[in-house]
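REVIEWER CHECKLIST
Item 1: Sequence provided? yes
Item 2: Single chain? yes
Item 3: Sequence as submitted:
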Amino acid sequence: MAKVLPIYLPTLHLLHPFIFNHLVSGESYGFARTLDRKLYNLKKEKLSHFRLFWHDTYSGKNPSAVKVVSSPTNSSTLFGAISMIDDPLTEGPELSSKLVGKAQGMYASAAQEEFGLMMVMNFVFMEGKYNGSTITILGRNKVFSDVREMPVIGGSGLFRYARGYVHASTSKNDMTTGDAVVEYNIYVLHY
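Item 4: Structure as written out by the authors:
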């Protein structure tokens, strides 16, 4: 019987990089490879629910929403209008309730025959263990529907690899100023 010499993992990569990469990361297909989630400290996936209030304010001295492109046509749906936002996210429906984050991004009126927005936003958390983490939302918001559903397409920090959806429902809407308060219920799978 031949004597087997121990080969330690730190020296194995010197013998053949393909073998080392295959052992550490799984299958390899040239430009892509399967990774072991344990190497990236990804524990068991969990489902979290967040209930927040989004304050979109065009009026006053310090608006959180600014129209950067007006509708180029006489459209009743404001088709083509684009707004940038840095909206407060609070625990309750009143702006004076506890600030937990900001909704930063933009929305555009993307429908010609009904009032529908394309929303592109990061919910940036500023409170508790989620401080500095973000949830990214990108989707269609049919504003005058009672409940609108949009997808969560990702995130950062504690929400890396996030996926899920949000339900948005309007709490207050001032048609004169454009100011609105919207309740967001976020259902997100994350590690």
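Item 5: Key structural point noted by reviewer: The two ends are 48 Å apart (CA to CA).
Item 6: Recommendation: ____
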